[in-house]
Each structure stands twice: as C-alpha cells, then as structure tokens.
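Worked Example 4.2. Read the sequence first, then its structure tokens.
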Amino acid sequence: MTTGTGVAQAADNLPPKQPLVQDLQTGNKECAAGDQRVYVSGAPVLSAVLYDPEEDNHPAEANLVKGEFEAWWTDADGVEQRLTRTTLEGHSGSPQRWHMPEGSVPPGAVISWRVRANDGKATSPWSSEGDGSVCEFVHDDVNPEKATISSPEYPENVYWVDGVGVYGHFTMDSPSDDVVAYTYGFIGGPYGTVRPERPGGPVTIPFLPLDPGPESLTVRAIDRAGRSSGQSSYDFMVKSGRAPVAHWPLADAKGATSADAEPGTDAAAGSGVTFGAPAPARTQLTASATLDGSSHGYLTTDAPAVADPRKSFAVSAWARPADTGRNMTVAGQDAGQAAAFALGLNARGETPDWSFTVGGATVSGGAPEAGEWAHLLGVYDAETGKAQLYVNGHEVGTRAGATPTATAGAFQIGRVRDGNGYHDRWHGELGGVRVHDRVVVPDEAAELAHRETSLRGHWSLETAPDGASPDANGGAPLKLGPGATIYRVPDGSCEWWLDPDCTPPPQPLAGDGHLALDGRTGHATAAGPVLDTSDSFTISAVVQLADREPERPMTVLSLPGEHTDAFKVRYQPEQHAWQLVMPHKDERGAPETVVARFARADGRDGIGERVAVVYDDATDKVKLYVDGQSGADATAALPNGWRASGPLQIGRARTGDGWGEHLHGDVDEVRAFTGALPDGRIP
C-alpha cells in the first residue's frame, strides 16, 4: 500500500492539516481498530472534520477543503480490494462525509479506511500516517438470535409463586456471541439496558414485585452493530406478600403478663407494662400496651424474630410517645451484647425524629409528637444493602447503606441493648408490632399505616322541615338561620323542552334542592363540632356565588372555637380565589396558615364549584381542593391543629365578637369525614 504524501503547493499556500483520529467517525462511533474496531449495520457512513490553516484565509476567498477517502479490505480469495471517494468542497472545520453505497463492502470483512484533506492546491498527510491511525469497521447484516430468560425464584407460567416483596433474579442469555447488551422491561417498569461482562455472555438482573398478579418480562438482545434480536417474553405469576413471621397486637387483656404472638413467640412482659390502653383510632387495633419507661417496662421473647439480619426484613409498630425529650426504643433485636437493629425515637438532634438503625447505619425522619400516634416501619433491603424508614406510610429520611450482623438474639419491645445493658426504654403506648422476613413495599407500608375515614355528616339540603335540613346519616341536622332558605324548582314551571318560548327556572346545584343564602344574615348550623379538627378530617361542599364581582370576602364553611375559627373556607375577591384559613391557636389575632386556589366568581352562571379541605394529622399537611384539583399554593404544613368546640357553620365565620363574611350564594352537598381522604377520592 502506498503511503506517500503529496505536498506540492503554491508559494503562498499552506497545505491542509493532517486529519486527527479524534475527528474521525464510522457512523456515530469514534475511529478504532483491532479488538476495538467498530461494528455497523446498514450502509456505512465515514466522516472526518478537515481543517485548512487559518493563515490561508483570504478576504475574497472562502477557506474550502475536500476530503479524499480511501477504504480497503482482503476478499475471500485473498485479493486486496480498494474503494476511494473525494467529497465536494466544504468549509474548513466542517465534517466531510462518505456515504458508502449499500452492498459496496462485504459483510463480516474487516474494512480499513483513512482520509486526507485537499484544498485544491495541496493535500495533507493521510490520517493514518505518523502518530495517526487506520480506522477499521465490520459491516454486520445479521440480527442476533433471541435471548433466553430464566429465573429460579419465579419460574415461567407457574401458578402462583412467592410474592410481593421477594426479589426474583432473571438471567438473560443469547446464543449469538456478539451480543453486547440486553434491553428489558417489566409491566409498568422498571425498564433498562444491561451489558454482559463479555460479548455473548449472560446477564442477571434483580426484580422486586410490587403488586400481586400476572407479570411479564420482555427482552431484546443487541449486538455490536446495534442490531436487535426479536423480542423474548417471560410470563410469571406473583402471589400477595407473605404474612409477618411475627405479630404482637399488644391488645391482651388487662393484667396479662405476656403478649400473645400471631404468629411468632409470645413475649414476656415486665411489670412496667400495662395492657388495655386505647388503640389508634380508625385502625384494626382494638387496644394497646402502655410501657412506663422504667427498667421494668419492656416485652421480650426467648427467640429471634429475624432469623438472619443479613437477609431482607422489616419491623413495624404503632407508637404513641408520652414525651419526646429522650431516646426511646419501639422494637429491636439483640445481637450478642449489642443490637442487630432498632426502631425508635431519636432525641439527640435539635428536634426529635423517628429512627431506624441497622448494621451501623441510621435513617431518621418524621416529627414525633407527645400523645400522638404514628405508624413506624423500618425496612432492610439485602439486595440493595440499604435501610429505609417509613412514618405513617410515607418514606422519610435518606436510605443508608448498612452492614448487618449475622448474630440473632432475642426480640425486644420497648428497649435496646449495648455493651452496658439495656437502655432507651419506651414511655408511652405501643401496638401492632410486626416483623416480616422480606421487603415491605410502599403500597403495603401505606396499608399498614392506613386509618379508615368515616362519614360524620352528609347534608343534601333537599328539604328543611321545621327549618332544619336532615343529615343523611341520622346525625345533627343543619338548622337554617334567618336569610337562609331551601331552593327547589317551583311547582308549575314551564317545560322548556316542550315550549320554545319558556324561560326555564334555575336548577339546583345537585339533586332536587340547595341552600340559598342572602349574604346578609343567611347561614345554617349543625350542633356539636361535628369534626375533631385536632385530628385528621375532610370536609367538602358544592358552592356557587351569586355575584360575578363580590365586594368582600365570603365564607362557605367554618368551625369555631371560643375566640376564632379552627378553619374557614372563604372566597377572597381581591385574589379571585378560594382560601382556606387555619389559625394556629384559639386566640384572636393568632398566626394563620392560609392557602388558596384560583377560581372566578360565576354569578350563578354555571354549575358551581366543589371545594374540599383535607387535614392529614399523620403528615402534618393541609390541602384545599377546588373541583378536585389542588397544588403547591393550596398545600401547607400544619404541625398542630387544635380542636374546635362550636357548631359547624355554613355561610358565615367568626369576626370579632360576632359573625360576618356572610355568603351571598348557594350551597349544596355538604360532607364531613373523620380522617384524611386520599387524593384519588377527592374528585
């Protein structure tokens, strides 16, 4: 092969620069040779960025160069074959490309190529000369064969196998020896690409089922040229997650000296444990145990609940601390003279938080409050090697890498062990302690912490016999005050669908009637607070303003204390928005949390708006919804709601020593719930 360089030039012309290897590409891949050579599918495209010296620039002339490409290979008969191509002129510094014709090079042969620049007067050295390099590629026109898939934990088409929270390991392999990657996807994710250690080798990926039911894995093998195999599918059936290996409800009879396990080993109780305390409201627990914080306030087993802390496990419980000023342990397990893991309350920082410690790692988060129940769940995932913590069904803190001990000792409730003995004893109530020998997944975490909502009042406002609109649940009726009436379509109204000259009367917001308020004195009240606003609650109503441009704020819902409202929902015309206002104390002038949601007043020209308030005491969040939608401006932190004492108010709010912000408009379908309805149920 000839490697001479033509450098003939005019006296005032400098030759183009030698193309650099880093400026050469085969397709979209960098120039390479030998074992690193490029594999391409389809017609090859060779490209090079070519330069002419800047000194050759002339005001009247463009600085142009063209590329002289050369490719060669040895055919099946051992004869060298060669192709050349000179591109059209292009500007210095721009790519020059050779689109090689389809079929111009044989599949499977190693093709070498190089390039040099020509400015019309001189040529550069070849890109392969000196410190340069020849580029090589192989044209691959054969797709790899389909991948095979196997899993020891989840065999294909078997009804049903293990379950949610238990990892499966899926091995992908292809008979083709040039496969360098596998793309994969499970139903709903995850999706990804993995690469074997060597071309043609297998790859194994982990998969954690999050839901029971049919599942499928699809895989494609990708070769060095980027060619894809056909799709392989692997179908398997996932059972629901395994039940706990140990469960202590702690709802034993008063006077009991041990806690029954369902299943697991019964836990002996110290003399500082008293059974028969109240359970967290709206849960399946019927009672709990009180631990007095002394050296006698604990429960313990004579066997471990987690057989091997190096494998995946989870520990959970309902906890209500009597105070938050000291470290306290909910549950844990011994490991010789130390603890394998512990779930509890950490008071070492500026503010107390919940914590889960395992294998030298601690995850912390949440905000414990004295006298308030919280559900805690610590999870160790052996596949990822990380510990994580859930508080009230929501993951908190940052997952931490852990190295658990292999030692497994007695399970402890209410205390933790170190070299100096037991300490950090629990003071308060505990219930529903569970241990799983697997990962507990997010949906299960939310279910364990779930508190049922219950409808406390539903006023359809269809009728008001004796001036009171009944509650559909049989509770306190809404008593109509002066300026409040129930609107129904008048009897004898014309039938507009039969009479084109008829002007139809307004229709109720919902059903056969609604509450109409005059904006001066109109209101309605339901006896009793109806809701405990210090705990989670939801309240909603359909409301329609009578004016397109209201002149003042108007309240649709409020629940008063002695001096102010625990909350009120009002329309604020200056902001063209519905507002939720929640004072922090039952005091006049107390600081307020205010959130808002934009909405135009329609002046009774429409179907009204659905407003709803959700206070979640477990997450210390309050949200305002309008027509099923909330947002960042309509969401706020509210650590401590206080309990209202007055009757539910429709159409007015506390102002000074009396009432004001009377609503001019209509209200319908008022509903009040104990508990925080989830986002999906609000619309």
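Now turn to a second chain, presented in exactly the same format:
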Amino acid sequence: MSRFTEAVTDGPPTGAAADRPPGWRELALPVLVLAPTLVALPFGEAAMATAVAAPVAVLIALHSLAVHRTAGPALAGALMVTVVAAGTAATLGEPPHYVAGVALLAGGGAAVAWATGRSRRRTRAYRSALVAYRAGTSAVPRFAALAERDRLAAELHDVAAHRLTGIVVSAGAALRLADRERTAEALRHAIDAGRQAVHELDRLTGLGERAAVATLADIDALAAEQGAGYRRTVDAAPGSSTEAAYRVVREALTNAARYAHGAAVRVRVEGADKCGGTERSKRSERSERSDGPDRSTSGSGLTVTITDDGGTVAASGLGTGHGLAGLRTVVDAAGGTLWSGPEGSGWTVRARLPSAASPVARRWPRWRGPTALDWALVVLAIALSLGASLLSADVPDSFRGLLPAVPTVLLSGLHAVPLGWRSRLPGRALAAVLLALVLWLACDLAGWTQPPVSDIFLVYWWVELTLAYSAGAYLPGRRSRLAPLAVASVGGLVLAGGSGITGNRAAAWAVLTGMLALPAFAVWSLGRFTARRRDRLRAADTRRRELLDRNADAAVRDQRRRIAAGLRRTAQRHARAVVAAAEAGQLESVRDEARAGLTALRELLTELRGRDSGDTPPPTVAGIAALATRYGTAVRYTGSRRPAPAVVEVAAYRTAATLMAPGVTLTVRSLDNGVELSGPAPADPGVLRRLRAMADATGGTLSTTGRGAVRVWLPEVFPSRSG
C-alpha cells in the first residue's frame, strides 16, 4: 500500500512531502546559513573579502527558504537580504550611488534565488502529485461504475417509483369506493402511467441514453398532472437548477400521494428573495442543514416550496427509503440547500437553488504566479545593467546627476521589462528588446548616454539569449527560426557601432553577426528541444487520459448492462403487467402488479446501494464525492466539469480530504482556469497552515472570510510545467 493510500485509509490525507509544511530539518539549512551571514555583513569589507562564499551561501539559503516555505515568508527573506546588504554599505560610509548599486545587485540575486526556489517547490509538488495520480487512477473505472450505479439508482427511484406509486394510490382509492366512473378513471390512469413507466424503464435499460434536462415548463406540466395548487413567478433558471427543482417537486408530490392522501398540495416556484415560510421553519432548516458558513447561495436564485395540509397514508409499504437522501444529494450537487419537515398540520419541502451566475476565472497575483521567474529576471536585468555601473570606481557621467541618469535608466528598463512577457508573448518580447537596443544605440550616437551600449552589451546580452530560448520553447518552429538571426544581427550592429571599431563597420557587422549567431542558434535549439519534449509529455498524458476514459466508459457500460438485466427481470416486467391488466379491466391485478413492481424496485435499489468498494477512491476531482460518503460530508459540484491536469486533480482531492468532517458541506467549483474548493475553515491552525502550504506548492492561493469559511484556488495551468 502506498503512503498516499495509507493516509486516505487511516484518516484525511495530509498530502505528499512536497505539499506539507516543512519540518525543522528542512528549515535548518536556510536559517543556519542566512542568519550568521546577515549578522556578519556589517563588520566591514575585510570580513566580506575573506568570506567570498558569503553571497553564494546567502543565495543558497534564500533558494532553500523558497523551496520549503510559502511565497510570503520566502519573499520577506529576499527583501531582508536586500535591505541588510544596502544597510551594510551605508554603515561603512559608502557614497549613495554605491549603496544603490549594492541594493540593486543584492535585490537581483535575491529575486532570482526566490523565483528558482519557487519553481523547484512547484516541480516537487508536481512530481509528487503525478506519482499519486498514476498510482491511484487504476481505481477510476471501478468508481466510475459505482457513480453510474448511484445515478441510475436515483433515476430509477425518481422515475419508476413515481409512476408506480400513483398507480397504486389511484387503484386503491377506486377499489375502496367501488365507483364505476372512478374505476374507469383509475384504469385509464394505470394505462397511461404504466406505459410511461415502461418507456422510461426502456430508456434506462438502453445503453448510453439519458433523459433530457427538465425545464420550468416540465414542472408546470407535472404540477398540473398531479392536480396540485401551483404558482410560478420566475421565467428563467439554469438547467442544473431546473432539473433539481423538477426532481424536488416530483419526489414531494409522490410522498404527498403516499402519506398525505386527500390533502391539498401547493407548489410554489419563486425567486430566492421571495421565499416564504415561518421563522420556526427557517430556524429548523438552519438546525438541520448545519453545512457551515459557506452554504448559502448567491443573492438571487430559485426557491421551490411544496406543502400539504396533512392527510392519511394511502397504503403501507410504498416507499423505497431512499427518496429524501437521494434528493438531498441532487440539490447539494446543484449548489443548493434542502429542508423538509412538519409545518403546521402538514409537511413542507423547501429547496433553494442558485441562479445562473457562472464561476469566472481567477488570476494569480503577478509576483507569485507562473510568470514569477520572468519578472525576477526583469529585476536581475535592471540590477546588472545599472548596479554594475553604480559600483564602478569611475562612475559614468550619466549617473552624476538626476537628469543625466534618466536616459540610461529608461533604456535599461525598456531593455529589461520585456523579459516579463517571455513565456506569454515571446515574439513581441524579443521585438521590444531588440528595438530598445537600436534605440539605445541611437542615443549613444547622439551622445545622450554613458557608458555606450556596446561596452556593456556582452554582459547584458544574456537578455537576448534568454528571449531566443523562449522563442524556440514557446513559438511554433517556423515562426521562431528568425529569432536567433535577429538577435545576432542586432547584436552585431550594436557592437559594430561602438567606439572601439575602426575601419569598415559593415564588414565588422557581418563578422560579429556570424560570431554571435553561434550562441544564439545554440540557445534557440535548446528551446526547440524543450518544446518538443513538452509536446511529447503532453501527448503521453493525453494518451493516458484517453485510455483511462475508455476503461471508465467500458466499466460504466458494464454496470448499466447489469442493472438493465435486473430491471428486465423485475420492475420492467411488473410495469408491462400493469399495462396489460389495465387494458383487460382488472383493477385489482393493476394494484397488485404495481405494488409488486415497487417492492421489486425497492429490493433492487437496496441491493445496488448496499454494494460498495472498500478501495481508496482515485485522487481526482470526481473521487472527492466517493471519499465524502465515507466521512459523512456533502459535496456540491458547480461549473462545467471537465478533466483537469493530473496535478490539479490530486491537489483538489487532497485539499478536499483535509477539509472533510462529518456534517459539513464542501463546494467544488470548476472555473475557467482551475478548481476552487470552499467550506468551513478548520478549527486547528495547524490544518490551516497545511492547507496553505498545499495550495502554495501548486501555485494556488488560500483565503479566509469573516464568516469562518476558507477558499482554496488551484490553477489549471501548473506554473512550473508551463514551459
């Protein structure tokens, strides 16, 4: 048994090593290295000269801190290093330009150490999740079959039981009254309802066929068919809410026919802001549905209320015992709440369902999202270009006043900032950098900047090489081939325009372009290799996903065949017998066959729900529902559900398992660019820290609300694998 499986079996899993908060051993290295180094910094240049390895040790410590801690504390460490380095230079009496240079270089190095540590942290989480996903997805087909079993069981109860119950009630009433007109009416109803039951059972036994989503018009027809008092004040609602509302009304009307025979029944479909009911019923609802502070739906929505005045039990033994439990699952899955209980002299069922507001994509904070390394490179580029000049003994004229420094600072920024777009818009970023170089050269020729760009280009050229790599890694092959040639050509132009070149500058440009083309094409080729490797990995993941889907579909079809065989032997046979008896005018046989069909259906539902798998659910978003049943936790799924990358599936599963507790409700929202989970915040601060670490390791975020709820967002595009 794997460690992940053991964690789920023994209790809510804490996640893999990459997702949990670090222990003291993992924090010892950065603390023991970083603290003494920062203490030693103010003791002067001699001490620093004798400890050449101190800056390297600081960067290693910062990198380790970013690997083992969340983004905030690691960033605080990087800022502290920058401040201490600048403060040390100021304490030693260095001039302001020197202090600024130290701050820039320290900040650039700290930013890169922080970003690479973050990348390493996410990569570790990715690998851990991938191992868990591959180990756990063998259970996907089995649990897909169980989910299909539960879906069919709920549909069987809602469809066939509703029809057969109506037949038993109407036939029994007609037999008691012994009225010819009532008998004829009961026979006509038995023929119509029996045929509908046969048709619906035929559909259920047909492989792959599902019922259409119910609409508000279907609710109108259902209420009219049952003769209930009806009022609807809404004109539109999302399909998930109308389907759930239809099933609530159908189940409530069926129960009223069973247990409140002869009572007046009223159905109301209204907006959420027009919800009626007494304060006592609302208090009862809050008491029974203690789902935590995040259970309410948004401002507007749909409220369905079914009430009766009380009545007599039509006949004993008509219920299946699974109606309200299955209905609560349906309402929870639609994102709503359900309450049922006595009110006045009768019974009330009330469901609140959400409006059509769809989840939208969330965004990363730029400093911690998938482009964090890109912007750290921007900081490093500015630090190297300006910081190195400010640290030189002979400070250039451009930095001897505020106004002369403006062109150099602006050009350095124009040359560095496009690095922030290298993974999203690599072509435009490269064009912007090359344009900044040409503009810098023009300013040199005009005598506006010092030192000339040709003097610092070879140190600063790694920016162009980085973007040449990005062009190979992120752009299509044909579009990216011009990138290394453009880098070499513009670089040769900048060097040929320098003051150290004498003679024919055109010839010098050609020679220099050829020399620069070698490293430019080398890094571009590395980028192309990275792109092809990424494409192969994605193709392999796609093939694995398709194979898994095929296996799951096969398991679902097999489950449907087994259930269909059971239906044909029992409920379907009795439904056909009901129609035959009704057509023959044998009302007692109609009642007996309908009752036998209900009994057979109840036994089949009990048998289906009694079978369960003792295996650990697969670590996927769909597996959350299976795990929730073991903890007594309700799960609502909202948004358009679709397969997510393996790391998101596993991270969502682990997060949900950590939040699970008996009696609470978790909401799983599928967003445009990820998955969001919400529920009551854990009372244990250690669990909350573990959740924050799990979200942070996958590039996500955790937030809490004033109502004691927690939300965890997991991005669908895993940052460390985006390039």
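Notes for the reader: Strands lie at 229-232, 265-271, 301-308, 337-343, 346-354, 634-638, 665-671, 674-680, 701-704, 709-715. The CA atoms of residues 134 and 544 lie 10 Å apart.
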